[in-house]
Amino acid sequence: MTTTYAGTPVVLDDEGFFADPDQWTEAMAPEIAKEHAIDELTDRHWKVLTFMRAEYAEKGTGPTVRVLGKASGVSVKELYQLFPKGPAKTAAKIAGIPKPKGCI
Fold first, then answer.
1. What is the active site of this protein (predicted)?
2. CB 3.0-4.6 Å disulfide test: which of 62, 63, 87, 96 passes with 92?
């Protein structure tokens, strides 16, 4: 399916993840976040989103919640506060990367 963020059309898969992470821009993140009931992206949100994109660039998949909690500098408890609908899936969507392996 195709949708538009920050005035740019992007292709999403059936679950709403970016089909091509290269289409994502930082300007899109606040719009995507609002779709997931996150009204404002704080520095802590951006720390997670930046980590997600770096992990994807390095490993070809986004990190699991466990890896996020250990390596991002944001605790698992805080991850669930920042991304209440599920940190790995929600952060991956906002960060413009495909669904992380291990996500149901």
1. 103
2. 62
Helix or strand holding residue 46 (H, E) = helix 43-59
Provide the pLDDT for residue 100. Answer: 82
pLDDT tens for residues 31-48?
999 999 999 999 999 999
Helix axes 43-59, 87-95, angle to 10 degrees: 80
Could you give the CA distance from residue 46 to residue 71 in angstroms, rounded to a whole number?
A: 15
Residue 45: φ, ψ to 5°: -60, -45
The pLDDT tens digits for 67-85 are: 899 999 999 999 999 999 9
Around Cβ 6, how many Cβ atoms within 10 Å? 14
103 tagged catalytic? yes
Residue 102 pLDDT exceeds 70: no
Contacts of 11 (CB under 8 A, 6+ apart): 1, 2, 18, 19, 20, 23
